[in-house]
Structures are given as C-alpha cells and as structure tokens.
Design a protein that fits this description.
Layout: H1 4-16, E1 24-29, H2 33-43, E2 53-58, H3 61-70, E3 76-80, H4 88-99, E4 106-111, H5 119-125, E5 130-133, H6 139-177, H7 182-196, E6 202-208, H8 216-222, E7 223-228, H9 246-258, E8 262-263, E9 267-273, E10 279-285, H10 293-335, H11 344-358, H12 363-373, H13 385-388, H14 396-413, H15 419-430, H16 451-465, H17 477-487, H18 494-502, H19 504-513
Parallel strand pairs: 1-2, 1-3, 3-4, 4-5
Antiparallel strand pairs: 6-7, 6-10, 8-9, 9-10
Helix pairs in contact: 1-2, 3-4, 6-7, 6-10, 7-10, 11-12, 11-16, 12-15, 14-15, 15-16
Length: about 525
C-alpha cells in the first residue's frame, strides 16, 4: 500500500507530462491513496470527444472545496462519503450545489460503508448523479459511469453556453438599438463583440461611403475607420489603407472577394452591409479563443442584429441629413434672391449653435436651435422681388411690407406639428423684436421675447454687420463691438450681449470659416438677388 505523500508526488509527475489545455478535469475525493491510484490506472487512457483526462486529487472535503474554488470547470467528482467525518462527502455535495451554485459538475458518490449512507435516502435527498459501492465498481463499470457522466456534463455545458450566449445577444443587441450616433454605435458593436468572444484585443470598424458593394477594389480604397479599440483606437477617421499593414490588407481583400466572415487563429473579419449596398468591415485582431459552432453562431446572430441596427441608423441619419438640407436650402433660397448671395443662413445657424453652447445647452438642444435658426428669414419668399432687389433706402410703405416677412415666416412654419418647425416659427416671428420693445412685428419687450428669438436677434445682426451688402461695406470687428455695446439693453438682451462680447474672437473666427469667399454659389435665375440689412 502506498502512502498519501508518495501518491501525491507520483500524481504530480504524471500530470507534468500530460497536456491539459483541453482535457476533462476529474476530481478524485477520497481519504485512501490507493483509491486515487487505482482510479487513475483504470481511466488513464480514457479519451472522450477528442479530449483526454486531467485528474485532481483531494483527501478531505476541505481540500476538495479548495480545489473546486480554484478549478470551477471541473467536469466530474468521484466522491467518497466517509472521510474526516461520517458525512463529509454528503456535506460537500450540499456545499457544491447550494453554496458554490454549481449545478453542472457531475458527482458520482462512492462509498465503502453503505450502511453509513443508505442508497435510497442519499439519492432522494442529495443532488448526485450516481451512487456506487466501491466493491461494485470494477474497471469496466467505472469506465462506463465516467463516460456517461462526462457525456451529461458536455451536453449541459452546450445548453448553458447557448443560454449565456443568448442572454448576451439579447442584452448587447438591445443596448445597440438605443445608441444614437454612428461612431458611438460602432464603438458599442466592438465592445459587445469583444465581450461576446471574451476577447480584449485590437478591433476596428471601417466603412466605404458612397460605394456600391460589388465594386470591391474601389470599396477598399474608400474604406475609412469609423471606430477602433486597442492599437486602432487612435485611427478614427483615417483611411483604412493608411492604417493597416500588408497582411491585414490581404485578409481584407480576401474577405471582400469571398463575401463573408473569415476566422483566423489570430483575427477574424466580418462584413456588415446595409440595404443600399454600401458596406463596412469589422476586424478583430488578437489571440482568439477556440471557437466552436456555438461561438460562430453567436457571432453571426449578433452581427446580423448589428447590421439591422446599423441599417436603421444609416436610414435615420439619411432622413436627418435630408431634413437639414431641406431646411438650409429653404433658408438660403429666401436669402439668395439678392445679388449678394452669401452663406448668411449657414453663418447665422452656426453662430446661433455656438451661442447655445456658451449658454450651456446640451448637444440636442444646440442642434435644434441651430437648425431652427436656419429658417429665420424664410418669410422673405413672400416679399416682392422689387423690394428685395432695391439697392437704395426703402420708403415707409415699402418698409412696412418688408417687415411682413416675420409674419409670413411664422404663418408658414407654425402650421407644422414638429417641435423643430414650431421653434423655427417663433424665431422667424421674433428675431427682429428689440429688448426695449421698439422692434417688430409685435413690439415685444424684454423677457416677453422668446430666448431663441433674442439669441438669433444677436447672431443675425452680428453676421449682417460683418459682411458687405450692395448698400454698405462690411464693418470692422471693432466697430461691431462698439455697436453692440451701445445697443446693450436697447436692441439686444444685455446678458446675451455680454456673452457675445466676452467670446467675440471665437464668434468672429467661426464667421470667417463660412465667409462668402469660400462659398460656391449655385446658379440662380437672372431675377434672383438682394436683401435689406437684417437690423
């Protein structure tokens, strides 16, 4: 008979020479070293589902508990009942199932003293998978019991992995649908995909804008990195061909030609396409875990959901871009009936957005304000061309007609039910009101004027003064500053005036970015042009 210490040394030497990366882990729990040795001898050549056996050894319930805490992936426990106490094995079963919450590991209870643990009572009371007397466990029966237990463990792990994977799919896909911006969405996809694969590597998503899917070479040339992690985190907005090396580019070209997902040992490439045929590519680089069919299916399901969400996001953005373009086009159309066609609408819009940020508005409110400001002079489409084209001073009667553009703009926009257009209606009506109550069309005073109307009153005049018109030269920045100081509390809200003057250089720089010199005017009819000074 061998001693416990001799068996431990013998077992350690055996384990050093055996590969254990994918072996089934079996824990032998028994206070008799000979039982450990005999069990190993009987099972040492066992290979199930292409995987060998790795043995763990514990001689007390306490040692078994420590082992299971270190190796929770143990597939099978061959457990003695009587060890340091008559009920040590049964108490360990309770700990495994109730304290460790481990319902997956298979437990075969083995006892040399069946009177201490009657089989019927034990099977009914304890969550075990088999009960055997040691004298009954021949080598063949032990082999059969272990294979059956491993098969059950394998099947349970497949079910559990599917359950966990499905939970991840539902949770991660649901969060992606709530993401607003394209960049944030893509970052979310990368993060969730890494979590799905238990991977912390280097990833990026690239997209080819305005390119048809079947134009592979052009698509690759036009690919731009939208978001990345790891080594690619700083590559946002860069051309794909300027970031990746030759090996990665060769893999990308292969994925494009094969039109599908490709998994390598150190990387995988997954295509995402939208309904318009413009497509993108997810690239994951790093030491990938061994992916089985379940892993591949999980990735495919997740990517399918991500592709749908991305298509919806692209569609939403396309609608938003179209709406913005329509608003700017309408606003410019009203202004572009004058000879000095300019970017006045774009500048007022951008300046208004800047004022919103200085006031502490969040990004959504700034966007809303900026878009609404683009429509401030939409009512000019109802003003006769001869008045808009007149280079000299307007008569009193003509001036009254000109002032009606505020009323026309409000009437046109207020019929809409969308918040953006309702806000644009307020701005169109009130951007010529004055703080002291001498403005038009309603003669509102102070806080009676909507905040957005007061903001556009400042940005509209700031831009108009700084740009040339047929009847005046552009004012210098110093002259504009003096004018706003004089009109503080008269024409303009004093607090908003102070905010403009405190940040005057930033407002002036933004105005220069959209200067008329950089503006490419579309071709208009011969009779379109000229507008009066927006004061």
């Amino acid at each position: 008979m061998i001693s416990k210490s001799q068996h431990i040394l013998y077992a350690q030497e055996r384990e050093k020479s055996k590969p254990s990366s994918s072996a089934w882990r079996i824990l032998i729990v028994d206070d008799e070293p000979d039982v450990h040795a005999v069990t190993e001898l009987a099972l040492e050549d066992l290979v199930f589902a292409g995987r060998g056996i790795e043995f763990g050894h514990a001689y007390t319930a306490r040692e078994a508990r420590e082992y299971l805490e270190q190796y929770p992936d143990t597939a099978l426990i061959l457990l003695d009942v009587v060890m340091e106490s008559d009920q040590a094995g049964l108490e360990l079963v309770e700990i495994i199932r109730n304290e460790f919450r481990n319902d997956l590991v298979r437990i075969i209870l083995r006892t040399g003293q069946p009177g201490q643990a009657p089989e019927r009572e034990v099977i009914l009371r304890y969550d075990i998978n088999d009960y055997r007397e040691k004298t009954d466990l021949t080598s063949l029966k032990l082999f059969s019991s272990v294979v059956s237990a491993l098969r059950n463990y394998r099947d349970l792990m497949v079910i559990e992995k599917n359950r966990i994977g499905l939970e991840k799919i539902i949770r991660s896909s649901g969060s992606l649908y709530n993401i607003g911006s394209l960049e944030t969405f893509i970052s979310g996809v990368l993060t969730q995909l890494e979590a799905l694969l238990n991977l912390g590597g280097h990833t990026f998503y690239s997209h080819a804008f305005g390119v048809l899917k079947d134009d592979s070479d052009t698509s690759i040339e036009q690919q731009r990195i939208i978001a990345g992690t790891g080594n690619y985190a700083s590559s946002t907005n860069q051309s794909l061909k300027d970031v990746v090396d030759d090996q990665v580019m060769a893999r990308i070209k292969k994925a494009r030609s094969d039109s599908g997902s490709i998994f390598y040992s150190d990387a995988c490439l997954i295509e995402l396409s939208n309904a318009e045929g413009r497509d993108g590519l997810l690239y994951i680089e790093g030491k990938l875990p061994q992916l089985d069919d379940i892993d591949h299916n999980l990735v495919e399901v997740f990517i399918s959901n991500a592709a749908i969400a991305m298509g919806n996001l692209f569609l939403t953005q396309e609608i938003e871009f179209t709406q913005k373009e329509v608003l700017y086009t309408l606003g410019e159309f009203a202004e572009c009936r004058s000879q000095e066609v300019s970017q006045h609408v774009a500048r007022v819009s951008k300046l208004t957005g800047l004022m919103g940020r200085k006031l502490g508005f969040d990004s959504d409110d700034c966007e809303l304000l900026q878009l609404a400001a683009a429509m401030h002079d939409i009512g000019k489409i109802a003003i006769p061309s001869e008045l808009l084209e007149k280079p000299g001073p307007l008569s009193d009667e003509e001036w009254q007609i000109m002032q009606d553009h505020c009323r026309y703009g409000h009437s046109l926009l207020s019929r809409a039910k969308r918040p953006l257009l309702k806000l644009a209606a307020i701005i169109a009506q009130q951007h010529h009101e004055r703080w002291d109550g001498t403005g038009y069309p309603q003669g509102l005073k102070g806080d009676e004027i909507h905040l957005y109307g007061r903001i556009v009153a400042i940005t509209d005049v700031f831009d108009a003064l700084g740009n040339a018109r047929v009847y005046k030269e552009a004012w210098s920045l110093e002259r504009i500053v003096d004018y706003f100081k004089q009109q503080r509390g008269k024409q303009f809200d004093p607090e908003l005036t102070d905010l403009l003057l405190e940040n005057i250089e930033e407002f002036a720089s933004l105005r220069e970015i959209y200067s008329d010199e950089n503006y490419q005017r579309p071709q208009l009819a011969d009779d379109g042009s000229s507008a009066a000074l927006d004061l």
